[in-house]
Records
---
Amino acid sequence: MNTKTFALNTDLTAIAEPATDGAPQCAEFIPAGAAITGRDGRAWVNDNPDAIVSAFAHNGADLPIDIEHATEIKGKAGEPPHAVGWIKALQAREVGSIWGLIECTQEGEQLVSNRAYRSSK
């Protein structure tokens, strides 16, 4: 596995493309504008992306990337959930979509590299 090192500043565009040999370093999490309906049926509108980015920054905590909602399901059941990556920063792009900087764990990198789970590309 290749180790990737990069600096974070306010412009995530420099690392917006997926790594060629593993999981993406930056990805779109919430599309801009219109009503969105997730695969699980929940619906929302991303009509104030700056407020979402601000709330993330104000919270000061990374968000876990887990498998099969482990932090919600296993955690509530008293089982130890674990993350395979972390959302380290968010940015509202010009069109209103929200992108996030991703830091994968070694397990997360392996899962994507082995195609057990896929990246967005």
---
Amino acid sequence: MLFGGRSGEHEVSRKSAASILANLGPAYRVTEVLIGRDGQWHVDGVPVRFADALDVLADQNVVFPALHGPYGEDGTVQAVLEWIGVPYVGNGVLASAAGMDKAVTKTLLAADGLRIAAGVTLRTGEHPTPADQERLGLPVFVKPARAGSSLGVSRVDAWWQLPEALSVARMFDSKVLIEPAVNGREVDVAVLEHPDGRVEAGPPLEITVTGAGFFDYDAKYGGGARFQIPADLPASTTEALQDRAIRAFHALGCRGLIRVDFFLPDGGEPVVNEVNTFPGFTSASQYPQIWERAGIGYAELLDILIAGAVKGRSGRSAVPGGVPR
């Protein structure tokens, strides 16, 4: 179990890992590898050198990287695991990196014909032009391009609020998106790849925010939202959402799992808001809850993901000789 990390989602990762460990069956013997906020690696609670941590990881049958955000969900750790030739749960380097960057995600999904929210991408020192502001309209959401859990996200209802919103977003990433608010219901769809290669979308989950203006960090982890599974939708709309979620899975080259978050305008084509290549995995998180409602309990879900990781690696060549020195 690999968890923790240097991102702002360190605590979320620890909570995901705790839930996973609590639901693993007795057949598994687990080694816990924690990455501290400072980058220090720990094996079963003992600080170790990075090289020693790699030796431990390389000796495992499979690694479950329960990591969220930069330095974990963005392909960084996945590249290390590929390098040492150990099977691991979830998405590979490319899908993880692309899925972490909201601007890249939107480009890839749009190229596959999926509807995405319009927006402007800003890099260091850049600001939206008057033409951008006119095209976007108000309100808009300002968000870091490469952060999760709604960290650094602000709603802007007047343009004088924009400089502060940009400053907040740039605390988490130098690359920032400005997107117009999309009027519509907020619906998530979980996608799961089974060990036989079958890709399945679960029942849609609708989010209703009860204590905040939008589904921000506090709403996600402080009980300020209510989930309805399945969402009260016509069968045709449910099928469309599931179809688009599976298309997003393939467009990004995913494996194992993904959660696709949509806005659903009245009578319109679903709009992909963003994706999560390793969504929250606490017992209260959307992804496990969706599959629980579909008849796949938490323990069985873990079995499916682990079996898929091991089977997927069996058809690929491992790095000979273990960790290079």
---
Amino acid sequence: MLESAAAEGLATALIGLALVLGVVGVILPVLPGSLIIILGLLTWGVLVGGPLVWTAAVIGVVLAICGWSASTVLTGRALHREGIPRGPILIAVVVALVGMILLPPLGLFIGFAAGLFGAEAVRRDYDFRAAGAASLKALRAMGLGILVEFALAGTAVSVFVLAAVIHFLF
């Protein structure tokens, strides 16, 4: 635990910046957004300490874990429901990484969508309609997963901000 109010304030400000970076990482999946938020909140709890800080940190960590899990489950369920195996997904991820390098940051999304559609078209014997329908449903599920994760990550950061204000004012 830090001893001075100035050190606590500096630590809280730096952790706040890390949490904002984590929220950005949820939207642009180049960074592990939820993981950054979880580690940031736990670090804040260790550095600043106290019942209020630890309560807020634990609530924020639970929210971030729920968002991370929901995103993974929603996307995985949609991919499984559409019968999309791991092969096309891996191809989509590789094309997304190439897209991220060629056209940052939108290339990541464009590359994933194009890679998934292309791999599904080949897998479905060039039935573009079926490949497009399956890819679109998978992308919708991914979008919904990102929105749920973003909402819960934002709520976790809001809990942090509220607890930080209370901690420093009272």
---
Amino acid sequence: MTMSFPRRMVHVEPRQRPTQAAGALLDDELEKLRRDLTHAVARVCPPRLAERRDDLVQTAMMRVMELQRREPERSKLAPAYLYRVAYTALVDELRGVQRRKEVALEEVESLPESPVASGDPERSAGSSQIARAVRDCLKRLVQDRRLAVTLYLQGHTVPEAAELLGWDGKRTENLVYRGLSGLRACLSAKGFEP
């Protein structure tokens, strides 16, 4: 004996596939968002970071997309909000640039081990002693002075060093000259005169 169960009618909505028009609308919205963020980044980005603008726009896009994922009801974003997102992306980038530069520039060992002194062994030994003394005296300088003086000794001008370190030109000039003065005093105490 077979039992039959009554069938319940369940209405199932057919799956709606996104149409090409809906996909195009989404692409259009994303393109408009990218244009708005590009404009906001251009307003806040300094000229020295012009080559990083595309990265800043991408970072800002990711932040806005994350916000829209968390809060889907937020479909319209005010220009002031986009400006704020662009500004925070820029601040984070500047902080990252400063951190990367400090790590790279702290290495005093970037000076050559011994200056080139061809031919004469006595001159070569004297050059090695001077190089060791300079490295030792640089290590004794305060970090900011050490960084500024190291760049200066590597052949960078004061404005170039200021740009690399992200500091004011006057501050960098002051640090270079005070650092060089400290370096000369240290070398004099070690018996090396200019």
